[in-house]
Amino acid sequence: MPITENPSADTVLSIRDLNIALPKGADRALAVEDVSYEVKRGEIMCVVGESGSGKSMAANAVMGLLPKGVNATRGEILFEGQDLLALTEKQHRALRGLKIGMIFQEPMTALNPLMRVGAQIAEVFEAHGQLTPRSARPARWNC
Ligand SMILES: Nc1ncnc2c1ncn2[C@@H]1O[C@H](COP(=O)(O)OP(=O)(O)OP(=O)(O)O)[C@@H](O)[C@H]1O
Ligand SMILES: [Mg+2]
């Protein structure tokens, strides 16, 4: 996909020339090589590729959730103009679940079967100060 030099104001996410390196002993050196794409406000972007081609790794890099030993070694990920690769864990945590969400690939492992679904969703809003434990109580117990 062609990338414009100056993303327009309605570009929400811009991944440019991204490389993600795998640790020694992995099945290949780079999980992601020279990947660039943009997502505009209100746009739905589908990334299609064979299994192991790096779709999830690119998404994990956006979320600041790359596994230990896996690192972005080149490129940038601009979200609303801010380079996500330069954020600290604390800054990532402030964005995750508030401005950027991810639905993980394996639904059976994404939700904790020992907790109500409502409690797991309420937790996100509470963590970002958008619901108090009291106002989240109906969601915690009814879903
Ligand atoms: N935790 C990890 N440690 C080392 N290498 C990994 C790890 N997770 C994935 N990889 C490797 O990273 C590469 C990209 O994997 P990724 O999971 O991003 O692929 P994908 O495109 O999402 O595949 P799928 O369609 O199966 O979900 C693959 O070579 C994979 O083996
Ligand atoms: Mg995947």
Automatic annotation (TrEMBL):
Pfam family, one: ABC_tran
Compartment(s) of residence: Membrane
GO MF annotation list: ATP binding; ATP hydrolysis activity
GO (cellular component) term, any one: membrane
Family designation: Belongs to the ABC transporter superfamily.
Family annotation (PANTHER family): DIPEPTIDE TRANSPORT ATP-BINDING PROTEIN DPPD, OLIGOPEPTIDE TRANSPORT ATP-BINDING PROTEIN APPD
Protein name per UniProt: ABC-type dipeptide transporter
Organism: Vreelandella sulfidaeris
